[in-house]
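Regression report. Comparing outputs from two consecutive submissions.

Submission 1:
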Amino acid sequence: MIKKKITHFGYEAITKEEKGKKVNAVFNSVATNYDLMNNLMSLGLHHVWKKILIETTTLKPKSKILDIAAGTADISIEFLKKNKDFEIFHTDINLSMLKEGKKKLINQGKIVPSILCDAESLPFPNNYFDCVTIGFGLRNMTNKEQALKEIYRVLSPGGKVIILEFSKIWGPLKKAYDIFSFKIVPKLGKLFAKDEKSYKYLVESIRVHPDQNKLLALLKAQGFEKTSFMNLSAGIVAIHKGYKF
């Protein structure tokens, strides 16, 4: 009898096969209210975090950028505001999220490829991109190691990965943060998105995601060098970076 591999969907232990379907259902549900809920849950801070990601990323003109789990396209748009000559690929595994992002891109006059694809099996050649970004998407992936392996493959030598993700908050703030996360966020989801269950999952997914040092170790294990992280908002989120040489 073949033993099925177990992963987590929030706090629930499920098979890896089940996780993909459940995560897809979550984002089908939240897509149309995703930006509104991001503003409510982060008190608008997610815009600041994304701008810091952009401003701390040095790239040559006409760099090729792969935006993974790009969803509603905030990071893609901010890169194009910084330099309209960047060649950006806006990608997501969830069609509903990809459509929301494409609408926003078009409304802002940004015409870039929007591609439905799985980060764990990227449809791009080796050594192609100068930069790969993931904003709040890595924790939802079934096999993070495989996704990082694929990112390493498609990066050109000298290229960098940049990951913006929820992480481990500074200890003295943990109690207040947990109250907000577990008591307030699901209620906001129920009130504004008519979906309490999905936001309960999203809160739990943060708690089972690797913390700053564990994610750093995952990057190193896949061959990335000069790895680092920078905490934002007392560690509520962190920006991780790694390079391919």
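Submission 2:
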Amino acid sequence: MLFLAVFCGFLAEYKLEHTIEHQREKQYMQSFIYDLANDTANLNAGFPLKDQRIKAIDSVFLFYEMNPAVIKIPGKVYRHMHRTLWDRHYRRNSTTIDQLKNAGGMRLIQKRIIADSIAAYDLQWQRAEFSRELYSTNLEKGKGFVEKIIIANDLLPAFRNNSTGNGLPSEITDSLTISISPASLNEYLNFLNLLKTTTIQDKRGYQAIEQSAERLITLIKKEYRLK
């Protein structure tokens, strides 16, 4: 009888522990869905900005294609050149996945398909974060080219009157005429082609992450019967 009582107590304790862990697992999944939704919103907000950058690069190409010997450019082209220099930098909401990895929470995920999908999603972000440093380096390189090509003298009044703190003063109108130094122009245009290519590839990579996040949200909701 004593043995039976001890055994039943053990079973009750095991069941309670299992119930608590299942509840924690479900809480983690609810929190992770929130992070995934945050990621998808952030990613989708950035895609149009990448399209605008690609469009600006093509506008620069078109102008110099139509004006191969140009030594002065309109402010509109300068604005296009300036627009090629920035883009959305993505950072995921990693709150829940960091908790899962650092606090041993991954062991709570009993559903293998969920655990594998989370690991695959995490790997996608790791790859994206690895390439982000090179992407940032290219942006800085682009700024260097523009600084070499643009002769600042024609922009000094706009620089001096800039009280907004914006990198592109509002005084630089589309019709403003700006002198350029063509020495680095060929290298700059070749670099812009590389920048366009990497921007397209970058967008595709993040689109794949966004699609993975959407599928993972659907899968988690289905497996854990969450709304």
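Expected: both submissions complete independently.
Actual: both completed, but the second showed a warning that disappeared on reload.
Relevant detail on submission 2: The mean pLDDT is 86.
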